[in-house]
Amino acid sequence: MKRNRKRQVKMEFIPKVFVAWIVIVVSVAIGYWFMDSKGKQLNQEIRKYELRYTALENSRAREALRWDEKKTPEKLEGALLRNGLAMDYPKATQVVRLDSRGRLIPGQVSLARINKVKGTVSTVANTH
């Protein structure tokens, strides 16, 4: 007995190899598009941070200049006088030098002054 079979007609409009190549090309194009957009986004972010860095660097330079202006001897002296502090460099008779062990170095002008003052001041009360 013969079966009644229909013939299946294969109709291929586009070959499978061609479809595979199209899929690969489209995938690569989408990948490149994604990387390009991500690169542009990162480039914009870098530009934003560079502008911020430049602004901060300019601000730092201005503040350093202002600070250097305040450190001049004239400005320091004026600030001390405004705050009621009369400071000056020590005189030779006011400086006492010590060696590395913490002992007085002999032959200093200040030591001679101290010894002179000690000699005139007595520790005992006068009973006149």
Topology of helices and strands:
Elements: H1 16-70, H2 73-82, H3 109-120
Question: Please, could you describe this protein's structure?
Answer:
The chain is mostly helical. 60% of the residues lie in helices and 0% in strands. The relative contact order is 0.04. The model has no long low-confidence stretch (mean pLDDT 86).
Task: Describe the structure in brief.
The chain has 128 residues and is mainly alpha-helical. It has helices at residues 16-70, 73-82, 109-120. It is built from 3 helices and no strands.
Largest sheet: none
* Rg from Cα: 46 Å
Please tell me the overall pLDDT. Answer: 86
Binned, the helix content reads: 55-70%
Give the overall shape. Answer: rod-shaped
Number of helices: 3
Instruction: Give the structural class.
Output: mainly alpha
Element-by-element helix/strand order: HHH
Strand content: under 5%
Characteristic key phrases:
128 residues; mainly alpha
